[in-house]
Amino acid sequence: MRNVYLDYSATTPVKEEVLKEMIPYFTEKFGNPSSLYDKGLESKDAVTHAREQVAALINAKPAEIYFTAGGTESDNWAVFGACEKLKSKGNHIITTKIEHHAMLHSCAFLEKQGYEVTYLDIDKDGFIDLKQLEDAITDKTILISVMLVNNEIGTIQPIKEVAAIAKKHGILIHTDAVQGLGNLPIDVKDLGVDLMSVSSHKIYGPKGSGALYIRKGVSISNYLHGGAQENRRRAGTENLAGIVGFGKAAEIAKNNLENHIKHCSELRNYLKDRIIAEIPDTYVNGTMEKRHPGNLNITFKYIEGESILLLLNQFGISVSTGSACSSTSLEPSHVLSALGVPVEMIHGTVRFTVGDFTTKEDIDYVVDNLKTIVAKLREISSVNSTKGW
Amino acid sequence: MALYNDIVMDHFLNPKNVGELENPDGTGVYGSPVCGDMMQIQIKVDGEKITDAKFKTFGCGSAIASSSMATSMIIGKTIEEALEVTNKEIIDNLGGLPPVKVHCSVLADKAIKNAIYDYAQKNGKHYAALEGYDPNADEDDDHGDIEE
Fold first, then answer.
1. Which of B9, B21, B29, B35 is catalytic?
2. For residue range A77-88, what is the model confidence (pLDDT) as tens digits?
3. Which end of chain A has fewer CB atoms at under 10 Å, N or C?
4. Looking at the domain assignment, is residue A388 inside a domain?
5. Whether residues A165 and A266 fall in one domain
């Protein structure tokens, strides 16, 4: 059976070139980067090189890159580190309703500790309102955190404008760029952010590896306490092979960025055009402008997403859904709710993300099977276009 | 490894009794698209025996599988016997469901009851198991219990 992976926003395969770079660092080059003999220094050099590679992808200085265990740790560090550092200044955070749970659940935890959090709305296209942001700022606001690219609907937020507002009011600005890295040009200097979370496994690097960009001169409290690694700011023996892999993946992403964007957006648009033209009662969620090049989020009316996912899986096709039934919490997608998608339609959403290894034949295979699957489920469904909901 | 066992997958991939009856003796609907699951079960009754049943379901894999299983279970049963079908039996016959999915079969047993209730109303029948039964009782309370 054919295997078609269309869930690149969930994770990506490690590229061969990346794996090749990593392997020696599990075996012969296993030294602890903190050790002072050659075997340690060799590892330290590898970490330094990876730091340069990651920095180059986002136009940061290498010293501004702090390796972490991934996007979730980076988000947690940014928000808890900022709040701890600035607790004498205020207790108010501004973020959005569509952040990743790494941010939302961190904020919910802080609310229990007495912090106040404003969650910005998004409009029907999927964008925040800069006026609502500025209006939400108080003299107690210590952090603004807005994600660069949304993981479900792929919309790209106006972070440069957000950062300008934050700067005007002297407030720290963090962005979760986990879905953005490698999918659009990112220049931290141009964006003007203070803190930025990135992750390796979304850009064809290994899992369990990520980084927090901390702009030079910005100070937040440490999150992990222990040894003097990462310039005394993030303790714990380095995930050496993971860092080397992240570095190599970042280097490839930088060199390949233009091709990657072109390849993904062409196939994504082809997928969208075929689905909309050939399957009735389907809708795209979020605008197609200013969107992650590989992301497509579609509602199939009158049927439920987990059923679609399971049937696609029968044909070797991997996608994800915003349906409540697919989540362990049974909660429908908070992002699609914020977008104003009616709950009964959220249950019928599927997220497709194409990536570097997707081909046009893959897309044709998916659409051909999707047509049969949607028709079959609509045949079974107790709701339809004549009966209505 | 898979989300569902082979029996559930078989009932999901090849559901039995999908569709609508031409002249149903009873129709029961339970759930709503807002909750993510909505099931319609129709029955054909001859004497006191359920001779046919069909379903239409908007919902996830386990909702469709449990509809298929539930309709298969009641065909050939008397009304009294069908009213005794419990969620646990539906789940057991499916070889078990993931805990988070248990609410999907709650839907099937309620849809059966509602179909029989409709039949009873139309035919002036009384069944002990339907004493005080409210087919429109709050349908959402199953969901809350499963919060992680």
1. B35
2. 999 999 999 999
3. N
4. no
5. no
Q: Could you give the C-alpha distances from B75 to A73, B16, B19, B49, B70, in angstroms and in order? A: 55, 11, 15, 8, 9
Residue A38 Cα to chain centre, angstroms: 37
Check which CATH number belongs to the domain holding A202 and give it. Answer: 3.40.640.10
A244 and A293 both lie in a single domain: no
Instruction: Give me the pLDDT at residue B33, please.
Output: 85
Q: Is residue A209 part of a domain?
A: yes
Closest Cβ opposite residue A381 in set B13, B56, B104: B56
End-to-end CA distance of chain B: 21
- The pair of three-digit structure tokens given for residue A370, joined into one six-digit string: 């999707």
Tell me how far apart the alpha carbons of residues A288 and A294 are, in angstroms, rounded to a whole number: 11
Query: pLDDT digits over A6-45, tens only?
Result: 999 999 999 999 999 999 999 999 999 999 999 999 999 9
**Residue A93: domain span:** 16-253
The reply to whether A227 and A305 lie within a common domain is: no
Burial class (CB in 10 A: 0-12, 13-18, 19+), A289: exposed
Q: For the purposes of burial, counting CB atoms within 10 Å of the CB of B6, is it exposed (0-12), middle (13-18) or buried (19 or more)? A: exposed
d(C-alpha A309, C-alpha A319), whole Å? 6
The pLDDT of residue A47 is: 98
Which tokens go with B19? 């569709």
In a domain, residue A389? The reply is: no
A contact set with B (CB within 8 A):
302-307, 310-311, 314, 323-326, 328-330, 332, 343-344, 347, 379-383, 389
Residue A36 has what pLDDT?
97
CB contact under 8 A, B40 and A382: yes
Q: Are residues A30 and A160 in the same domain?
A: yes
- The domains found in chain B, sorted by start residue, are 6-123 (3.90.1010.10)
Write the pLDDT tens digit of every residue in A156-175. 999 999 999 999 999 999 99
Q: Are residues A170 and A23 in the same domain?
A: yes
Instruction: ipTM value, please give it.
Output: 0.89
Over residues A331-346, mean pLDDT: 92
How far is A78 from A166, CA to CA, in rounded Å?
A: 15
In the numeric block, the tokens 């919910």 are attached to: A108
A179 falls within a domain: yes
